[in-house]
Amino acid sequence: MSDACTLSPPMTDDASRPLGLAAQLREDLHCVFQRDPAARTRFEVLTTYPGVHAILGHRLAHRLWTRGWRYPARLLSFVVRLFTNVDIHPGAVIGRRFFIDHGACVVIGETAEVGDDVTLYHGVTLGGTSWKQGKRHPTLSDGVVVGAGAKILGPIVVGPRVRVGANSVVIKDVPEDATVVGVPGRVVTSRRQGQEDVQARLDHHLLPDPVARSISCLVDRIDQLERELALLRGQTPPHSDDGHCRTCSAGDLCCEQVDAAAPQVIEVTKA
């Protein structure tokens, strides 16, 4: 991994010194209202959002960790996990305006690095694939959104503004402005910077489905082969009087395509 992929500590606007803890916490609270329409008041967020509690606890634990207070840092992160069900190792580097929605069953490993404006949904794992010391967890660049249940494993780099679909398993580097879905994760779309806003990146139901697309292509190919075979035999694709295809058990899934092609087949066979 190149040095450019290593995230630096959060900085102030003038980049002269690290951002203070209080300023980081204010940003973490403010970003909740931008990404969760259910959030109403600061008091509600502070008292009822386990994801926010986990982030606040990690900010404190990470400062203990970097100052050499390793056991107190681990103990604090353990206590935070008991109350929030979010397990963030105190050694993980997390940037500004980080948000964990719902805050359940999220795991972030020791050498994970998370950029600014990153959003994780419940069930996300930033895990390792090796028992060796050193960098073994992923790096998430700025603006990444990771859907519920997704797993990002190994010392890979996820580029800026990437969307990871729910329940995806990502084990390879992902270029910037890409959308990744599936097991293993595959890049299905790529867009230019600034082409869509943050709200669009949160619309997980609009993510492409490569499995459904592959099945649709297979159904179309089978239909084409059946029509070609019927032409060679001088037959029409078999279907019942009620319009249901009897070639396979797909039923209404493909009978509409077969019926649309039937007049063309009949005309050719008569010729």
Brief write-up:
The chain is of the alpha/beta class and 271 residues long.
Strand content: 5-15%
| Total number of helices | 7
CATH architecture classification name of the largest domain:
3 Solenoid
Kindly report the average pLDDT value: 78
Shape: elongated
Find the structural class using helix and strand composition: alpha/beta
In the predicted model, the low-confidence regions spanning at least 5 consecutive residues are: 1-6, 11-16, 256-271
Describe this structure in words.
The chain has 271 residues and is an alpha/beta fold. The protein folds into two domains: 3-208, 3 Solenoid (UDP N-Acetylglucosamine Acyltransferase, domain 1), CATH 2.160.10; 211-270. The chain has seven helices and 15 strands. It has helices at residues 21-35, 42-48, 50-66, 70-84, 198-201, 210-233, 252-270; strands at residues 86-88, 93-94, 99-100, 106-108, 113-114, 119-120, 125-127, 139-140, 145-146, 151-153, 157-158, 163-164, 169-170, 178-181, 186-190. The strands form three sheets. It has a six-stranded mixed beta sheet. Strands 1-4-7-10-13 form a five-stranded parallel beta sheet. A hairpin with a 4-residue loop joins strand 14 and strand 15. Helix 1 packs antiparallel against helix 3. The longest helix has 24 residues, at 210-233. The protein is elongated and about 80 Å long. The termini are far apart. 31% of the residues are buried.
